[in-house]
UniProtKB/TrEMBL annotation:
Cited Pfam families: Aminotran_3
Record protein name field: Aminotransferase class III-fold pyridoxal phosphate-dependent enzyme
The keyword Ribonucleoprotein belongs to this UniProt entry's keyword annotation: no
SUPFAM superfamilies (alphabetical): PLP-dependent transferases
Cofactor: pyridoxal 5'-phosphate
Protein's organism: Stappia sediminis
Biological processes annotated in GO: L-arginine biosynthetic process
Keywords in alphabetical order: Amino-acid biosynthesis, Aminotransferase, Arginine biosynthesis, Pyridoxal phosphate, Transferase
MF-aspect GO terms: pyridoxal phosphate binding; transaminase activity
Source taxon at top rank: Bacteria
Amino acid sequence: MTSSGKKSYLFYQTRRRRPMLDQARDVYMWDVDGKRYLDGSSGAMVCNIGHSNPHVLEAMRRQMEKSTFGYRLHFETEPAERLAEKTASLTPAGLDKVFFVSGGSEAVESAIKLARQHAVAVGEAQRWKVISRQPSYHGCTLGALALTGYAPLTAPFDAMMRPMPKIPAPRAYLDGLDPDDEATGHRYADMLEARIVEEGPETVLAFINEPVGGASTGALVPPVGYMQRIREICDRYGVLLIHDEVMTGGGRTGRFFGADHWGVAPDIIAISKGFAAGYAPLGAMVAHERIVDPVLDAGGFLHGFTYAGNPLACAAGLAVIEEIETKGMMENAIRVGDVLKSRLSALMQRYPIVGDVRGKGLMLAFELVANRETMQPLPKELGAFDRLVEIAYDNGLIIYSRRTRGGYEGDHFMVCPPMIATEDHVEEIMDGLTRSLDTFMAEAGSALAA
Ligand code: PMP
């Protein structure tokens, strides 16, 4: 049934229906009944520059009047060429081969297939294992799903996938370690080395990680020294480093790529969400020339999607980057992100169940727990991950959650408004959040005291 009670011919994950969207502008969205929502998660951390940006709409309109599709085996298109050049100018030196796709899972699939073909091309065909982290999210297609450390999503498909090794994500806050101590970063990174050795270094193709953890870990910022040490370990064993920047790419953390905060260059980057910021389905895999050249020399990359380099999507992507740069949106993400983070942190004084606040720029999250000292999760019967989002939604505030800690043991919430958010929007978010937490606490009542 639709929200208006009619039979629906459309389905997604569940039968739950949502109000019909009417329009969206800047940080706000309206349903057909005129109810207004503050988009406090930019969709699923997608609409980084806000909704209905006039510069992007105009660029798309202009492109639409020229052409909306050119099959890549028939034509090159100017928007694809220009966006590839622009993207390469934003990546670390040498990472300037851009392969367009239509979304994040496709970008990750492309990255691991390119890595594999590179190994075959350079005579290392015994390398096939891609190590990833637990928990993590890298996409829902079977290749990307095999890398995803999130049992509720992967379990039914295990029989269809080759299992890939996992190492723990560096959740210092859960393990009682100091994230500002380099020893902590090294401790988690060294788990990669131990795993490579255990698996047999000659069989390990790549390591993939999200520079700032997304939906599965809730804006997890790596401890000091982690990113650099991971790079060293990959180099030591000839293992390619893939950064999944699907959520972090596009400026949300305050730098165009999340890994820019640590000055670490991977071999391959996957990017999507913020790349065209929801104006068109777009993603890319960006790889170092030294990875791409042997594959092309050996006969070509055996991979590609029909919509690759769609000129309309690329025109949108280009205009999005222009807006981010000319409007100083990354600087705003840092400035307003700092204000929002300190306001979220202040929730800890008022609500004992707010156990942790973390993130960078406007990629922020808070986690609810039963006990802040032990970080023991809330009773799962409360279904806080779902309930608080619903209450906030009723209050006209959209936040994002997904069960964390491997699936069923905890609740974190991403608060990631568009990078055009102001301090007034922060106040509105905090007002919606406190009202929602009050309602949640009142509903949960004795279950919280237990
Ligand atoms: N990687 C990461 C880090 C993501 O956050 C996502 C989407 N949540 C994906 C990959 C998959 O992207 P998509 O849903 O566009 O396929």
